[in-house]
Design brief:
The complex is a heterotrimer of chains A (376), B (381) and C (158). Chain A has 376 residues and is an all-alpha fold. Chain A folds into two domains: 83 residues, no CATH class; 271 residues, no CATH class. In chain A, α3 packs parallel to α14. With 381 residues, chain B is an alpha+beta fold. Chain B has one domain: Orthogonal Bundle (Cytochrome-c3 Hydrogenase, chain B), CATH 1.10.645. Helices cover 48% and strands 12% of the residues of chain B. Chain B has a three-stranded antiparallel sheet with strand order 1-2-3. In chain B, strands 6-7-8 form a three-stranded antiparallel sheet. In chain B, β7 and β8 form a beta hairpin. With 158 residues, chain C is of the alpha/beta class. Chain C has a single domain, classed as Beta Polymerase, domain 2, CATH 3.30.460.80. Chain C contains three helices and seven strands. Chain C has a five-stranded mixed sheet. In chain C, strands 6-7 form a two-stranded parallel sheet. In chain C, β3 and β4 form a beta hairpin. The radius of gyration of chain C is 17 Å and the shape is elongated. The chains are: A mainly alpha (376), B alpha+beta (381), C alpha/beta (158). Chains B and C meet through α1, β6, β7, β8 and α13 of B and β3, β5 and α3 of C.
């Protein structure tokens, strides 16, 4: 039995579609349409559509998950009425936003105002083409996929700042400034934490990093890097306690104050896309990706697409932790945030890098494979 | 970077009401502030000159939507004095019951809004949830949750429904447990302490100079509570302590308000016990007819029964949840008050905004103004 | 503090500008004074009697004249004191107390815009509750609630 991969699914779909189309066409056209080039071309298109749909669907599901969790943390129920347990609530909300007018302030700069959110959205979605979900479920084993993903991830402050500045609103501008300062400050510890992972795994490829975790997940040996990574990721995702750029108490909505309708929905979706990317990265780098420890019964890990199922479960649990943090912590202040970023996080992440290097040098990594709770 | 003015309000998440805080900022620092009030001015003092004494009570509820009872009580004391009336003792206890439950409801509302300003999401819902329990109690004996119209010149409108005191005690037990949880959520959080300690400091001398009263003054270590200093109603017969803190900052105001809620619970238990043991009338029996009527008479004649009511002035000062409220009622005979003047504690507290805001960050405005507990309805009247 | 004590304490300062001291509910009493002695009285009340906290300032329109009243509080004595002075309706001027009690600032702005009392040497006499340029004094008896003044409302969509 050949394994199901994202390529095989899209190729099969393309050939089935074209075959069905070809069967009702005359001979010459049939031959042209079922040629290998056309099938491959269509399969790439389908491949993209699947990725797009999957990322969007997961984002919307993620919003639902956050709303329900937050509701429980707050002693209420969250969305309840549209669909089963409110599952369709976000689709309804999205539809409402979709139907709204795009209102642009008269004084706003049209180009930046429109391209900012669009580019923010697009760059956030591109990352999904890079992240592997399971064995074979990625757009190709890029040798530097981790680096590429993080590079695209760090585009965000630029577009946030563009849209904030072109809104021509004082609150937006302040939010944009804060956002840029915060993201740049936390980019460094984030990358350094990743360096620790790279040192231990010896690869920049996300797929390799996951397969390297077959024996032990990295959160055990690299617990310091994990803490730094999660904290920096919270800042990059602009979630409480680091949601200063859109601290609604003082900045109304921060850099997206002037946005409404679909452009606001772009920001909202992109924010959750980034949250999803953040959770996925935590799973990939520290929690073994789609692999499961050996003490899990093999029946639970060997059914078709088991990797994806486990991967999604882990991702949603990680995001649940982010929601938990959001529900229980107050917001910090800008200067405190930056001070923590430069004075605490960077030394900590450097320490994590040194620890990782030390682990590799003294070759004590396999020890962690003995701990069943860690993985392997 | 050059300085710029930003308008925080009239529609802004920080304001909790309709007012405008103009802030001159240099980067993220506050250089100057200029509060602009009046967006909610309804002319309550003027309208009162055209109303019968009991009809003004309706307006008092609208003075402050979170502390309606306190304002009713304030006005009632002053007008009873102006009209030379004495309420029965049970009515006095009922008023204290209203006052203290109102204090808890108001402080819970403050807690919810304040933690929301800090970005704490869950406690916001907890505060609102527990405040609803108190509002349920109000509803059970006044019929309303926010605009009660319960007190009357010469007493209160009606007695408590049967079983009320037991229900109220259950609510108090629940609240006592919740207060512990609130403290854990706030004081137990390092970020909370980092944000609130030494923030918005206003020393006791500055408080006095700028007319600041209430929890803000008590958080600066000055023991001043009208319930102790100039006891009204039956506060001199009840046991409680004045909540104090000495840090004069946002944390201090938090501590004072939390302690005040605990003291209110203590007061309420005494009041409930007294009410159980002492049934009696709740409205003075010798009232002019238009004052005794529980509902406003429909016909025009009903108003004009007594024209030459003896003149008098009334002055009252009440420890409202936000601070020290005062009312001055001038009765020149006739059925309307000649002049009613109110002093809102928040009015004075906001007027000192420059003293406790300048020099902090823009991000500090919401917690500082949250710790002031702004209620615009009573500022603008 | 009894009215007699107040007279004894303030009489030497104000002389015949002290018009009388009378009992007043829930307070030490009410001091009636000539408006020319306002600042002297304020200073004496704050510094020698210890009433450091100004609670409120208000105005009453008695049609033929207007009354300005001040409520002050002493933390040492734990009591209120009323100060009140009359100003003629056609010349409603009185010295501002905000130099002595800074908290008078906003109260005087309110009394100015609602009752029409002019406070001399006030640092910042702007509209507080009513809009800028609002020329009516709503708390005057001549401002009738049932006969609304015609106000021209300017809207953008005519």
């Amino acid at each position: 039995m050949s394994t199901i991969t994202l390529y095989s699914v899209s190729y099969d779909l393309a050939s089935v579609l074209l075959g069905a189309l070809g069967s009702i066409l005359p001979g010459g056209a049939r031959a042209a349409i079922t040629s290998a080039d056309v099938v491959t071309g269509l399969s790439v298109l389908i491949f993209g559509v699947i990725l797009l749909a999957a990322s969007m669907l997961n984002t919307i599901l993620l919003i639902w998950w956050e709303r329900k969790l937050l509701g429980r943390f707050m002693d209420r129920r969250g969305a309840m009425h549209v669909g089963y347990a409110g599952l369709l609530q976000n689709f309804a909300d999205g539809f409402k936003l979709f139907r709204k007018d795009t209102v642009r302030p008269r004084e706003a700069d049209p180009l930046g105002f429109l391209t900012g959110p669009t580019a923010y959205m697009v760059t956030s979605m591109v990352i999904f083409g890079i992240l592997p979900i399971s064995t074979g479920w990625n757009s190709g084993a890029l040798p530097l996929s981790l680096l590429l993903a993080l590079a695209i991830f760090s585009f965000a402050p630029l577009f946030i700042f563009v849209s904030a500045w072109s809104s021509n609103n004082k609150y937006s501008l302040m939010g944009g400034m804060r956002s840029a300062a915060q993201m740049i400050a936390y980019e460094v510890p984030l990358l350094l934490a990743v360096v620790a992972v790279v040192i231990v795994s010896g690869s920049f490829s996300l797929t390799t990093i996951v397969t390297e975790q077959q024996n032990y997940w990295y959160w055990g040996p690299l617990v310091l890097a994990l803490i730094v990574f999660v904290a920096a990721m919270l800042a990059e995702m602009e979630r409480i306690p680091f949601d200063l750029p859109e601290a609604e108490a003082e900045l109304v909505e921060g850099w997206n104050t002037e946005y409404g309708g679909m452009l606001f929905a772009f920001f909202m979706l992109a924010d959750y896309l980034r949250a999803l990317v953040g959770s996925i990265l935590v799973v990939l780098l520290f929690l073994g990706g789609w692999t499961m420890p050996s003490w899990v019964p093999s029946a639970a890990t060997s059914f078709p697409l088991a990797g994806i199922v486990w991967f999604m479960i882990k991702t949603y649990l990680v995001f649940g932790v982010f929601v938990w943090i959001r529900a229980s912590l107050p917001r910090v202040r800008t200067d405190q945030l930056l001070r923590v970023g430069w004075n605490r996080m960077i030394p900590l992440s450097l320490l994590a890098v040194f620890l990782a290097a030390a682990l590799v040098i003294v070759k004590c990594l396999p020890v962690f494979g003995c701990l069943p709770s860690v993985g392997g | 970077m050059s300085e710029m003015w930003i308008n925080m309000g009239p529609q802004h998440p920080m304001t909790h009401g309709l007012w405008n805080l103009r802030v001159l900022i240099d980067g993220e620092m506050i250089v100057d502030v200029d509060p602009e009030m009046g967006y909610l001015h309804r002319g309550i003092e003027k309208i009162s000159e055209d109303r019968h004494y009991n009809e003004v009570i309706t307006l008092m509820d609208r003075c402050c939507y979170v502390a309606g009872f306190a304002w009713e009580h304030l006005y009632i004391i002053a007008s009873e004095e102006a009209l030379h009336l004495e309420p029965p003792e049970r009515a006095q206890y009922l008023r204290v019951l209203c006052d203290e439950f109102q204090r808890i409801a108001s402080h819970l509302m403050w807690y919810a809004a304040f933690v929301q300003d800090l970005g704490l999401m869950s406690p916001f819902l907890y505060g609102m949830r527990d405040r609803d329990l108190v509002l349920d109690l109000f509803q059970s004996y006044t019929g309303a949750r926010m605009t009660y119209e319960y007190m009357r010149v010469g007493g209160v409108r009606s007695d408590l429904p049967p079983g009320f005191t037991d229900h109220a005690r259950k609510v108090l037990d629940w609240l006592t447990d919740r207060f512990v949880e609130y403290d854990q959520l706030c004081l137990g959080s390092d970020i909370f302490r980092k944000r609130c300690d030494d923030l918005g400091t206003l020393k006791a001398t500055d408080c006095v100079t700028h007319g600041v009263t209430g929890p803000m003054l008590r958080s600066a270590g000055q023991k001043r509570d009208l319930r102790k200093d100039r006891p009204y109603a039956v506060y001199d017969q009840l046991e409680f302590d004045v909540a104090l803190a000495d840090s004069a900052d946002v944390t201090g105001r938090y501590l004072v308000r939390m302690e005040e809620m605990r003291q209110s619970v203590r007061l309420l238990r005494q009041v409930l016990d007294w009410l159980d043991r002492h049934p009696g009338p709740v409205l003075a029996d010798r009232l002019p007819r238009w004052l005794g009527a529980p509902y406003a008479p429909v016909g025009k004649e009903g108003y004009l029964l007594k024209r030459n009511y003896p003149k008098g002035v009334g002055f009252s000062a009440v420890e409202e949840p936000h601070g020290e409220a005062q009312a001055y009622v001038v009765n020149e005979g006739g059925e309307h008050p000649y002049r009613v003047k109110f002093r809102s504690p928040v009015f004075a507290n906001i007027s000192a905004a420059r003293q406790y805001l300048v020099g902090y960050h823009v991000a500090d405005i919401p917690p500082i103004m949250g710790s002031v507990d702004v209620c615009v309805g009573e500022v603008d009247r | 503090m009894e009215p007699v004590d107040l007279t004894a304490a303030l009489g030497p300062v104000l002389g015949d500008r002290l018009l009388g001291v009378e009992a007043f509910p829930r307070s030490a009493g009410r001091i009636r004074f000539e408006r020319s002695g306002a600042l002297d009285l304020f200073r004496a009340v704050r510094d020698s009697l210890g009433f450091r906290h100004l609670s409120m300032v208000g105005g009453i329109d008695w049609t033929d004249h207007r009354e300005v009243f001040y409520v002050v509080w002493s933390d040492d004595r734990r009591e209120y004191l009323f100060l009140s002075t009359d100003v003629p309706a056609d010349d409603p001027h009185v010295e501002s107390a905000s130099g002595i009690w800074p908290s008078a600032n906003w109260h005087e702005r309110e009394a100015w815009e609602l009752v029409g009392i002019e406070f001399d040497h006030h640092p910042d006499l702007r509209h507080l509750l009513t809009p800028d340029g609002y020329e009516f004094r709503p708390l005057l008896r001549s401002f009738k609630l049932h006969e609304p003044e015609e106000l021209e409302v300017k809207t953008r969509h005519v």
